[in-house]
Amino acid sequence: MPEPTPTPPADTPPPGSIRLAPGVRIDEGKLTFVTSRSSGPGGQNVNKRETKVELRVSIDDIPLKPDARARLKRLAGSRLTDEGILQITAEDTRSQRRNRELTVARLAELVAKALTRPARRVRTKPTKGSIRRRLDEKTRRGQRKAERSRNKGRGHDE
Predict the structure, then answer these.
(1) 128 vs 100: CA distance, rounded Å
(2) CATH entry 3.30.160.20 includes domain 17-115
(3) Which residues have C-beta within 8 Å of that of residue 98, sequence separation ≥ 6?
(4) Per the record, where are the segments of Basic and acidic residues compositional bias (predicted)?
């Protein structure tokens, strides 16, 4: 009797897709990788191998809710083109494969940040002491200005 094929864990992405965050997967075909020669030291390989990797993906191809998509656009900053293409580069290592993995990891990190809602600021009431100090300072400032107007016309050389 043949053994049953093992089922992959529930969070394993299906073949051909990449897991960016819990519940967010993108088809590998939607990602475009462009390679070029990397800057910096590289010894004998520097002018021969294209190890710099640039990942390009349309922000609309990433399955996100509208509020998360807006946060992603804000987080992307200058990495987002006018056409809505997100560009992430890596030239950290001498390995093209590793730089490719780094770009995907950076995309996943960006998506994970976009998924987390910013904590709402809890307004706090000023303390009685701080209110009293502010009002005392205002009173002193007003008295100082009133004193100046009373002394108007009286010079310092008298």
Answers:
(1) 57
(2) yes
(3) 92
(4) 133-158
**CA nearest neighbour of 60 among 68, 52, 48:** 68
Give residue-wise pLDDT tens across range 113-122: 999 998 999 9
- The DSSP output letter for 44 is G
pLDDT band at 139 (very low <50, low <70, confident <90, very high): very high
Alpha helices in 80-126 (DSSP H): 96-115
Residue 4 CA to residue 14 CA, distance in Å, equals: 19
Partners of 36 in the β-ladder: 52
Give me the residue spans of the domains in the chain. 17-115
Tokens of 8: 């992959």
